[in-house]
Design a protein that fits this description.
Structural class: alpha/beta
Strand content: 25-35%
Largest sheet: 12 strands, antiparallel, barrel
Distance between the termini: 41 Å
Shape: globular
Strand order of the largest sheet: 13-14-15-16-17-18-19-20-21-22-23-24
Helix content: 25-40%
């Protein structure tokens, strides 16, 4: 009983300290020193907030990290070392992280400031009200188009997000905070980026101020129109650099775009037809913010940049750089990789891989199957996993960042790997030295890979446009690219799962 009381008292003390820390963090403006990073919540009721925040991160050239209310472990594990290496002294949190997450950040030894409010409009008008170094007579409105963040960052114009119901869709009417802001400031010009509901646009036109609408048939055309405005009006000068990607990660990229006097291209339609546009604008260097299909070890979402697109770019003498890792588990981990690499690139960090391979040991199954033979491990991106053996030789692999996978052994030559969202990978051993993996979504085939065992006991993982070599030393699977460089590894930390 005495122990219970002591534990309860410690819990109460921790809660009081946590509440004190949380209350002391509140602020209403951005810190813009070079020793600052910004963490923006971008999920739930705060979906779309990140585009408004990217404006201030962009023109202050401050790294922007996007998060749920709790930092995913991939970012949480990386952050302390990054803070120490770059002498970060301030973290500005925009939106509502959990109290415990704020407490965890405070233990890293940096100053935590939080800008929060009842909703996105409350937060963004509060920041705009308390930011002096901005364009004070212009506003940008968008439902959620991330390219609006690039426009706002170059022009130093606040971007107000008008969405509804935790979605990226346009609200029907202006939030009262936006109406109040327009009425209380000498706004002379409003730029609408992308599509807004007619009822909302009517409200803006009813203010009888200058309205400019920038739209496009798709995200690619919209990007081109935004970039043309920035170039024609002198905000971007003589650039040969562009950043190219999809919807979710682009707010993170805005600081790098501005720092490098570059243009940003969103292609959520994923048509990849950008070569002529790049040539017309003298772009010779392109940064990609998404992985290609072959870089995903368990490729689910179709939101990848086609390897054919990359080849077409290179064939047209456009230098292609990746703001992602050469191998990652899936789209979710790839997006976390992008946030990390982008933040590091702003601070000019580089990390070399000096792993030395040991002798390759025989493994009768490729890594995608052999993982279930161990009870736990961690990959080179600091994502750990645990394997549970269920009945009938079935297994569950639980990763600490992504959803679990169930491995179902059909017979000695067939496994089915199931996710919880309709994706499945059917693995078939067609000979002693060959496995074929077919990818399905809700019963529809969309991809396949082939694994072939070599005479030196290594395995080749073969995709349509790319091939990787895997070597096993008894504890670690190493993945090598075609230059024999180790680009990923999977380290087993516990005993055989027998």
């Amino acid at each position: 009983m005495k122990k219970i009381k002591i534990i309860f008292l410690l819990f109460v003390v921790l809660c009081i300290c946590g509440i004190g820390i949380i209350h002391s963090t509140y602020t209403d403006h951005m810190t813009s020193t070079e020793n600052t990073i910004i963490i923006s919540v971008c999920t739930g009721q705060m979906r779309g907030l990140e585009t408004g925040v990217s404006v201030y991160a962009g023109y202050n050239k401050i790294p922007l990290i996007l998060s749920d209310k709790t930092l995913p472990s991939q970012l949480k594990n990386w952050l302390p070392a990054y803070i120490k290496e770059n002498n970060i002294t301030n973290i500005v949190v925009v939106g509502q992280l959990t109290p415990y997450q704020l407490f965890e950040l405070s233990t890293i030894g940096v100053n935590i400031k939080q800008i929060t409010g009842n909703n996105i409009a409350d937060i963004l008008t509060k920041i705009a009200d308390n930011t002096e170094d901005k364009n004070n007579d212009t506003l940008i409105f968008t439902s959620s188009e991330p390219i609006a963040g690039e426009l706002g960052a170059y022009m130093k114009v606040p971007v107000f997000i008008a969405t509804q119901n935790s979605s990226y869709n346009s609200a029907d009417y202006l939030d009262s905070k936006y109406v109040e802001y327009i009425k209380n400031h000498n706004i002379k010009h409003i730029i609408i980026v992308g599509s807004l509901q007619d009822t909302l646009k009517k409200q803006l036109y009813d203010f009888n101020i200058s309205i400019e609408e920038i739209n496009g048939a798709d995200s690619l055309e919209l990007s081109n129109n935004i970039n043309s405005k920035l170039i024609n009006e002198g905000y971007i000068n003589n650039t040969n650099t562009a950043y190219y990607g999809f919807f979710g990660e682009l707010p993170t990229i805005v600081p790098s775009v501005v720092e490098n006097n570059a243009i940003m291209i969103e292609d959520s339609s994923n048509n990849g037809d950008i070569v002529e546009y790049l040539k017309q604008n003298n772009i010779t260097e392109l940064y990609l913010t998404r992985n290609t299909e072959s870089q995903y070890i368990l490729m689910e979402e179709p939101d990848y940049i086609s390897s054919q697109t990359v080849k077409n770019l290179q064939d047209n003498n456009i230098s292609v750089n990746m703001l992602v890792k050469e191998r990652t588990l899936d789209e979710a981990t790839g997006l976390y990789d992008n946030k990390i690499i982008t933040a590091e690139s702003i601070k000019n960090n580089t990390h070399d891989n000096n792993i030395i391979l040991n002798q390759t040991i025989v493994n009768q199954e490729p890594p995608i199957i052999s993982i279930i033979n161990k009870s736990s491990g961690i990959d080179s991106n600091d994502i750990s996993f645990n394997v549970t053996k269920n009945s009938n030789n079935n297994y569950t692999v639980k990763w600490d960042t992504i959803h679990p996978y169930d491995y179902i052994q059909i017979n000695q030559t067939d496994y089915t790997i199931l996710s919880d969202n309709g994706y499945e990978f059917k693995c078939h051993k067609s000979s002693d030295d060959k496995w074929v993996v077919d990818y399905y979504f809700n019963g529809t085939h969309y991809y396949n890979t082939t694994w072939i065992k070599n005479m030196d006991n290594s395995w080749n993982e073969i995709h349509f446009y790319q091939e990787y070599k895997w070597q096993f030393d008894g504890n670690v699977w190493y993945c090598l690219n075609d230059n024999s460089k180790i680009i990923y590894h999977l380290n087993f930390t516990q005993k055989d799962n027998l």
